[in-house]
Amino acid sequence: MNLAIVTGTSRGIGAAVARELTARGWSVMGCARGPAADGLAGARYHHRELDLSDAAAVEEWFEGEFLAVSRLAEAGRVGLVNNAAVLACSLVRDVDLATAARALSVNVAVPVWLTGLVLRHAPPCPVRVVDLSSGAATSPVAGWATYCASKAALHMAGEVLAAELEQAPGLAGRDLRVVSYAPNVVDTAMQDELRALGAGSFPRREEFVAMKREGLLVQAAGPAREIADLLEREGLPPHSTLRFEP
Ligand SMILES: NC(=O)c1ccc[n+]([C@@H]2O[C@H](COP(=O)([O-])OP(=O)(O)OC[C@H]3O[C@@H](n4cnc5c(N)ncnc54)[C@H](OP(=O)(O)O)[C@@H]3O)[C@@H](O)[C@H]2O)c1
Hints:
The protein is α/β, with parallel strands linked by helices. Helix content is 42%, strand content 17%. It has a single domain (2-243), classed as NAD(P)-binding Rossmann-like Domain (Rossmann fold). The protein has helices at 12-23, 55-63, 65-70, 97-121, 145-167, 189-195, 205-213, 221-232; strands at residues 2-7, 27-32, 45-49, 77-82, 127-132, 176-182, 239-243. Helix 1 (12-23) crosses helix 8, helix 2 packs parallel to helix 4 and helix 4 runs parallel beside helix 5 (145-167). It binds NADP nicotinamide-adenine-dinucleotide phosphate. The site of NADP nicotinamide-adenine-dinucleotide phosphate (NAP) has 29 residues, from helix 1 and helix 6.
């Protein structure tokens, strides 16, 4: 059985990835605070309404019922798509501590922890981890301190894991590959949210308004197909950095 865990499947890229994978015959375990997006139903898809900023709820679900429902321990191939993320835009001057802490939890702590959960519970089968990244991981954007920091941190955590696979006793030989994957600028609710911000918290807002107006946004199905391909791919290096190009 090919089993994928995809976070943030109520809409956007995560929903498109889950649709693509179920169409290819994967079993998909999805989660989000809201219900599953349209088109995600049936025997191959299981949805959990879960707030990933709630550490206790995350541990309770994934360390408990999830393991039985997903049959992770029996999988022949495992894909983890760390997709759920929030923007938490504000100038550094105005950062709200609780909002930043929740965002860092959803965008970094949970993806890293979930990768560890897969390592602990998956059998010694091929494991592919795709961490949704962004140009924001390497380029500063005014108003995105929390988001940029979170994407940079997630990227580095993937590189650390690749080093651990070489150096840590007990991990050598695991067929686990990590991809830090930037999906390009995608026409989702996250982009709607950016365009709705005031220039006071997001000085480059007009550029993003213009990109939408000029039809430059990518549809989620494109990166979703490439992410599904990555979960099925052999021959990847321990860590790679890729970007969707339409
Ligand atoms: N769109 C872009 O242009 C773009 C560009 C570069 C990178 N990315 C990255 O691609 C990924 C997906 O982005 P998207 O554009 O599809 O975003 P989106 O449309 O805003 O969807 C985000 C998903 O994450 C879930 N989520 C957010 N907070 C959550 C929480 N606390 N608990 C559980 N689920 C939560 C949302 O579900 P609920 O609200 O129902 O919880 C939703 O399903 C993100 O990692 C993003 O950083 C996007």
